[in-house]
Amino acid sequence: MSKPNFAPLKLFITGPTYIRQDVKEAGLLPEFGHRDKENDLRFVPIRENLRKLAGCGDDYEPILCLGSGSTAMEASVRSLVAEDETILNVSVGSFGDMYYNIAASNGKKAENLKFDYGRAIDLNVLEDKLKELKPQVVSFTHNETSTGVVNDMKAICSLIRRYGAMPLVDGVSIFGGADIALSESGAAMYSTATQKSLALPAGFGIGFVSKEAEEKAARVTNKGHHHDIIKHLDRARKNQTLTTPNTTLVNMMWYQLDRIVNEEGIERRFARHAEMRGIVEKWVAGLDGFDMFAPEGYRSPTMSTVLCPEGVTAAQLKGTVKEAMRGHGYLMDPGYMKLNNQLEEAGRRLVFRVGHMGDITPDMLTEYLGTLEAELKKL
Ligand SMILES: *Cc1c(COP(=O)(O)O)cnc(C)c1O
């Protein structure tokens, strides 16, 4: 058998994320049968710890869909938008557009309300759209990974509800890195994934389903099989998954969630993420010609987007800087390609992203930024 030639890069991208050695080793725990009582030993604590991280008690039921974040998002659309209804997707970037594309490609009557890259959702603009379109369902992105903007989930859900619509939230890149206070959020269903702020490999789309969403889904037709949240809920209440889970990932998840809740502590984990946002802000403030891309007050705690000085090109970021960082043992994120292409075409300053989610520590981040600074200064 040949030996792999894989580079052991530290991932500073925005997902998948760096995985701790002890979490990797938990993948060596015994495989198990998913309809056997051994299954419960993993999934009872997994579901309990997910609820703690979400801050939702019994108000929401966590479901685990084999797939990734977009699988849970697709399940929300298939299960919660009835055939004669309209969904309004609200987008502040590429992942907002993705929710729209999921709805449209499933044949839903969908409209996309787009805000400029780098902006958060403007409640006045959204309100006008709600009045005009009168949608039954509205989706939006909690933490927009293409721009580093975090939206005010509670305020947006509250506005959507004032117009009688049901809010669906994509929280893929923030869950596990910030307090989402789900019970007070107003979201009908909240979707996330394992490979971002939970610092696990990809493999599950995680959905938090409210009772109200469950009642509605019971009336919606043509939900398919894997996108039917009712089928998932039936299994979830038995602490099982609808289809065969990735048992390696389940073992890692059991370990990682227990470690987060009982060893690191939820509050400390959230504080660590906020601290890392501050580290990037401070670093950028000390760098000539660089600025934070997202407006103050809307900056993500799990990733940052940095505006480069005029004249820096996408080729330099994707080629020179990223490859130099690879030489230092890092996988760097040279910016969301579609965004940088648009910015470059418009003659505007480009951005790069710094993922600081999951199990990256302030020390690791400081070291990374120091190395990156030296490479940026060579441009
Ligand atoms: C990564 C991401 C997704 C897509 O998730 P997958 O797990 O790749 O399906 C969706 N929304 C946001 C905000 C993301 O960051």
TrEMBL record:
Cofactor: pyridoxal 5'-phosphate
GO biological process, one term: glycine biosynthetic process, by transamination of glyoxylate
Every Aminotransferase class V domain range: 41-305
N6-(pyridoxal phosphate)lysine PTM sites in chain numbering: K196
GO molecular function: alanine-glyoxylate transaminase activity; L-serine-pyruvate transaminase activity
Keyword match Magnesium: no
Sequence similarity: Belongs to the class-V pyridoxal-phosphate-dependent aminotransferase family.
Protein's name according to its UniProt entry: Aminotransferase class V
Organism for this UniProt entry: Pseudodesulfovibrio mercurii
